[in-house]
Amino acid sequence: MISALSKEFFLFLSKNRTLNRAAKKWGLKLGASQVVAGNSIEAMIVKVRELNEKDLVCTLDHLGEFVSSKEEAATATAAAIRTLEAIEKEGLNSHLSVKLTQLGVDIDREFCVNNMRSILETAQKFKNFVRIDMEDYLHYKITLNILQELRETFQNVGTVMQAYLFCAEEDMQKLQGIPLRIVKGAYKESPKVAFQHKKEIDENFMKLIKIHLLGGNYTAVATHDHHIIAKVKQFVEEQQIPRDQFEFQMLYGFRTEMQQSLADEGYKMRVYVPYGSDWFAYYMRRLAERPQNVSFALKGLFLK
Ligand code: FDA
To answer: Where substrate is bound, by residue (predicted)?
Structure first.
């Protein structure tokens, strides 16, 4: 009950535009610096380099939410391109993750597609890969639709499939050959479209991972759940799925020991590294996912 309430509360805060706007001026507060790799590109480079030195590869997310003008979306596009340029210039081992709402999908679909094209052209020039994060169900269909349009020109783009969605299995069949990150799903969705119980979500999660792997597709298993990770390890062993056909992914600052031990065991371990001043909504969603994460925030109150 308490955890359900806290989930609602933090998701509510994550959507509060006034707080999000104010937080940009605060700098990283409330413990956010433990899960956000700095405010600036320079700070991010230091953190990614540290991770790479430990055999952890990355995907960078220049944070941004609630884009309501073309100007803001163009700024976000430029930031994504700058991130790709920094990866190349600094020799970092990192992909890029982006959100279509940041790139203006709610303002003008074609404008957003063009922004994605500019990002993908830069990534292609540097032989890099861009993943479109999956947002709430409201943006689900348009995200898949744009992905398929972009895949007609670009091979270096993939997306995310959320195991809480009833339609995930069917839709995944249409995404054969496309690299997918598979996750449980981070948003609050209606029981009309999504499983609500952990057991059902976990079962569907494993099912999707197996289908995508057995289809010969490159699969990113993104979870901090050691039960799922153990099952995936066993499954790939039994099915003799080569290690270069999948990777594990976790968020920056979460289960760092497990990240390291997976890398040490020879699995590809990719850390999702968010950075930038627009940290508030991202951080609130992480607190919503796991009430224990609130201890980050409480400790953070005392961190300078
Ligand atoms: P979950 O939160 O269900 O935890 C299961 C169990 O794992 C817990 O009961 C506990 O035992 C253990 N555990 C989990 N976290 C722990 C911790 N920090 N310390 C110790 N034990 C812990 N979502 C989305 O909708 N769209 C997206 O694009 C993405 N992208 C994305 C990228 C990456 C790299 C990750 C890791 C996640 C996402 N997500 C996402 C978020 C995802 O959908 C999901 O909300 C979170 O990962 C939380 O679910 P988990 O699978 O991690 O485990």
So the answer is: 99, 285-286
